[in-house]
UniProtKB/TrEMBL annotation:
This is Uncharacterized protein. It holds the Pfam family LysE. It is found in: Cell membrane. Keywords: Cell membrane, Membrane, Transmembrane, Transmembrane helix.
Amino acid sequence: MGRCGLHACLSYKAWSAKPSTEQQAESISRARIFFTAILVSLSNPKVILVNMMLLPVYISADKPLATQAVTILCTGAFISFSVYASYAFFASKFITRLKSKAANSVVASIYASAAGALAMVNR
């Protein structure tokens, strides 16, 4: 299935999906969500490649490696925590709006538009 078909399929699924409920969200443990997110983040090949390209630029051979590694690790952790905390904050503010049929319709329209654009480009 091409990219156009994939977007059309996702559009249909989003359009026909029922809004999620509290019971669905509570059926998954927080620990499982946390460890799944960690696994996805650590196995992301783009992040691994970016780190392999950028870290050598900031590491100096004439300074202690442990100090530099701890500094880079703490800086990266702080930035990641700040970004994901802001995502969580804004998601908690908009959660009721995101669990509606209207939100599913908006997502379905975006996927349908993407499918249409890909169909036009791939002609």
